[in-house]
Amino acid sequence: MSIKNIKNKFWLTLVAIIFTLTSCVHNKKDATISKKIKTEKPKDIKNIENTKEKIKKEKDVITIWIHGTKMMGLQDHIFKDFFFRIVGLHNINEYLDKHKITKLAKQLSEQNTHRFEYNNFYVYGWSGELSHEARKIAAKDLHRVTLELIQNYTQKNGVIPKIRLITHSHGGNVALNMTKINKQSQDKISIYELILLACPVQQKTAHFVSEGMFEKVYSLYSELDMLQIIDPQGLHKFKNKEKKPLFSERMFAPEEKITQAKIRINGRSIMHIEFITERFAKLLPNILYELDQWDQQEAKEATITNKRKCLSINVDKKNTVFNKKYLVKRKTKYN
């Protein structure tokens, strides 16, 4: 049996064990709450944000979706359409309707057309290998193609577009690795919004969120998501041999421009794969809206200064009610 087949069987077995364990987990109630705010979701978020100023602000924003690590042995068979991606940077219109990413893009756009313009939605496909080096290679290529996209858009439309990155899992570390490339490049890229979904927080890349390349960062996570933290970064070999925690983390160190939130839907935490379902894509624009409103409220009241307060959002699917909680402070390995 080849080494590749052994690795594939190992990861398939590990995923099966994780799904079995997480399906049996009973979610405990959150720890001490210092403040709780309950707000109804706006009846029509499109009407709230449908102003001339907002349309002008979002009209020239390009959204790039970056997938995570591929599920070895599953992507080419069981979930072929679910995980399908074209290597490189491609506009969403190059994908077929049956592909999952097309459905996700449509959900985002339908929920908030002005924030997520469908025709300005792109997908970046990379090898998806569970390797720090593979993510560095992808970051270098992503920087190159993004720069080309900006130049082409500017030449065609006469305006420099803003770039929004939405990443899942290790796709987030691909995006974070772009900062090193950006520093070395003569042509700089600025990321308007970086939306990290279930990104494994690792010592090698965690500090990159504070780089000037990123204007605003959202990091959404779930305590039931074991795949986010299962990557054993402590076993990876790096040149400087620095000491690092064995597994990945869920949260970044405090940073003014980062909003971090634990996600619960219908009273429970969600699994890794649920961050890339149509159900979650339908909720994401409103989750971001609620977080933006909360940030504005904090700034106005000047009562909360630490953006990494672990904003906990409970989303009730039937009534779409957002319950916001401040959780007890919790240190990370990167404080």
Rg over C-alpha atoms, rounded to the nearest angstrom: 19 Å
Number of helices: 8
Whole-number tally of structural domains:
1
Largest sheet: 11 strands, mixed
Number of strands: 11
Tell me the structural class.
alpha/beta
Q: Choose one word for the global shape.
A: globular
Fraction in beta strands: 15-25%
So, the CATH homologous superfamily?
Alpha/Beta hydrolase fold, catalytic domain
Describe the structure.
With 335 residues, the protein is an alpha/beta fold. It has a single domain (41-326), classed as Alpha/Beta hydrolase fold, catalytic domain (Rossmann fold, 3-Layer(aba) Sandwich). Helix content is 34%, strand content 18%. It contains eight helices and eleven strands. The protein has helices spanning 3-24, 45-49, 52-59, 80-83, 100-111, 132-157, 171-184, 278-301, and strands at residues 35-40, 61-66, 88-91, 121-125, 162-168, 191-197, 217-221, 258-265, 268-269, 311-315, 321-326. A hairpin with a 5-residue loop joins strand 10 and strand 11 (321-326). The termini are far apart.
Question: How is the topology of this model organized?
Answer:
Layout: H1 3-24, E1 35-40, H2 45-49, H3 52-59, E2 61-66, H4 80-83, E3 88-91, H5 100-111, E4 121-125, H6 132-157, E5 162-168, H7 171-184, E6 191-197, E7 217-221, E8 258-265, E9 268-269, H8 278-301, E10 311-315, E11 321-326
Parallel strand pairs: 2-4, 2-5, 5-6, 6-7, 7-8, 8-10
Antiparallel strand pairs: 1-11, 3-4, 8-9, 10-11
Helix pairs in contact: 5-8, 6-7
Labels describing this entry:
335 residues, 34% helix
